[in-house]
Each structure stands twice: as C-alpha cells, then as structure tokens.
Model the fold of this input.
Amino acid sequence: MNECQQTGLARRIARPPAVIGILGGGQLGRMMALAARSMGYGVRVLDPASRCPARVAADGAVTAPFDSVQAARELARQCDVLTYEFENVPAEIVTALEQESWFPQGGEALRISQDRLREKQALREAGFETAAYRPVTSFEDLQEAADEIGLPAILKTCRGGYDGKGQVPLRTGHDLQRLHGTMDAGGHWILEKWVPFQCELSVLVARGSQGETRSFPVVKNVHRSGILHRTTAPAALAPQQEARVQQWAQALAGRLRYVGILAVELFYLKDGTMVANEMAPRPHNSGHWTLDGCSVSQFEQHIRAVTGLPLAEPVVTRPTVMLNVLGQHYAALLAGIDTLPANCFVHIYGKDDVRPGRKMAHINCTGTNAAEARESARLAEELLQMEADHE
Ligand code: AMP
Done:
C-alpha cells in the first residue's frame, strides 16, 4: 500500500501515483483507465481476456476468470483502491473485497442491482415510481401475476439480464401460454407491466466519499433491439422535473452508501410521469457524451469519487448526441471516418472480435446548439448506414 492517507475525518484519499484496480476490462474499464492514467494514477485490470479493451490503458493486468476469488485478491494485493465496471461481480468476491480491501463503491449497490426485485424496491424507497411488478417463480405464479397486473407485460429474469437479454414480452394470453413448461424450476423472474413510454431517459449521479453528490443533466435515450442506440444530451426536461429526478437519484446513492457514478434509467410518459426501470452502480453507456460535451467526464468523476478527491461540477459545454457503433456499423465507421463532420468525436474500444450487436465504439456528435448536434448525428447515422428511426 502506498500513497493512501486516512485523515481525521475518515476521508481516505488515494493520491497519484496510487494504483487503481478495475474489475472488468471492457470499454467502461478502458475509459475509466484512460481517465485515471491522465490523472496520474496507476491502473491494473482484472479480466479473463489478455487483450481486453482496457488492457492498453492499464499498466498491468491480472488475467483470470471473474469468479476467481484468488484473482480478485491478487488484484487487491497489487492496488491501493478497487473499483468495478460491471454489475455481475460474484457475491463471494464482493464480500471478500468489502472485508479485505479499500472498495469505496461497496457491496450494497452491487447486491441490489444484481436482483431486479430488490432493485425495484430500492428505487421506490428512494422516491422513484416504478412499473407495477410481481415476483414469479413458476408458470402458475406467472398466470396469477398476469391476472393481477394485466397484459401487456414483460417477463424478466431477476439476475443476469442486460441489454434486453433475459426478457420475454407478453402481449397476449397466447404469448403467456407458450411459456408453459419452459420455466425452469428454481428460477426467479419478475413480471413487469408494460410501460407505454414516450421516450426513455437516464440520470447519472456521482456520490463522493464524504456523501456529497453532483448530478449530470438528465439525457434522452433511444434503444434498438434492447441496446442503446443514441443518447441526446441534455434531454432538456422542465427544471422541476429535472430537479426531482436528480433528487431521487441522489437519495438512492445515499441510501446505498454508494461512492462513484450511479445511473438510473427511466421511462417518460406522455403525461410527464417518470418511471424508473433500473439502476447501474458504475459509469454508464448513456454517460459517454460527457467525454466531449461536459466540463468533466463521467469517468474522471468516477475516479475522483473512488479516490476521495473532490467531485467536479458537471457543466454542459456542448449539446451532444452520442451514437453507439455496433459490430454491424464498424466497417462503415472505419471506411468513412475521414468524412464524418468535424464536430463528431470517435471513441474506439479496440475489440478484436467484431460481431453484430457488439459495442465497438461510440461517436459524440456535438454542436454549438442542439439542432447542430442533431444534424451532425443525422449525417453520422447516414454514413454508418444506421437505418433512420423515429423520435
Ligand atoms: P432492461 O433490460 O430492463 O434495461 O430493458 C431493456 C429495454 O427494454 C428498455 O430500455 C426498454 O426499451 C424496454 N423495456 C424494459 N422494460 C420495459 C417496460 N416495463 N415497459 C416498456 N418497455 C420496457
């Protein structure tokens, strides 16, 4: 352990060149590592892939499966402070890290975000509304739950689903009957009422080691096939609504005694109601715009929080539309990168394996005003042959 200090106020600070350990070496780990390196920190990543996206930005790695407690301990041994970039850190490792290491994000937010039922409960307790939902462990439960909350609804696995995976939309009784005999004994699901949303939003809040919070402005998201396609920042909500969402997100982070960036995804209904869908206790895809459109990026803010540094005040510097570049768009991006509008900023994750649906890069299309940012995004979408959608 070097360069860490415990002050009288229990404010623990990791001063550069302390070493930050990141569990997970995907694109979020890579962008965290890049921020940390530019702030003067050392970085080690734990990932099963030796050529993971974060590896080039780190100055060391532990190459091992995510479920190896021994590997997590080895990472902890090499580092002063630990963070993670994905929610599915096994419970056993979370407990070991909490007990043995400096792990400011803590285990509580992870345990809650790993279980959709507990997550909904936590969102409600913080003040958010959620869709009506029921726990389901069998086909009989499912029928009962559907009778109670009505169709259309979505059946989601309680654990392990992401980017729309592990979800079955149930529009009619026929869809429901088709699940007869397919639900594994011992499984845990949640049946959630379908929300007829007008658009999707997210809010990112940073909570520092002293309990202080800073929110990034609420942004508007468009998903395609369950994967984020585009984020428009800021969403430009009415100030009262903006304040309410930020207050709930800050309350949630506080209740979980969480330190770092916490994201909450929401549905916005025609009548102005906002319904929380889920949370993510880490930097989030819908916060990538902050790399080019905000006074501080979500990644730097996260590193500030977990190292005990003061949080920066996020100020929008340029309206930005962020586009995710998936495997199917990647060749067109590389071929046409020189023809993108000059106010588009490309961030490539360095993944070797290009597959449809895999997040390969993102483009921050900026402008001096929102219309200019939208126009840049339209041109970029055209170039990448992303078929038009309707906002
Ligand atoms: P999730 O895996 O919960 O993030 O869901 C992925 C996407 O599915 C969301 O971003 C929505 O577009 C859609 N979705 C999930 N839950 C609901 C719901 N209750 N009502 C309507 N759409 C939903």
Remarks:
- Residues 197-390 form a domain with the D-amino Acid Aminotransferase; Chain A, domain 1 fold (CATH 3.30.470.20).
- DSSP finds twelve helices and 20 strands in the chain.
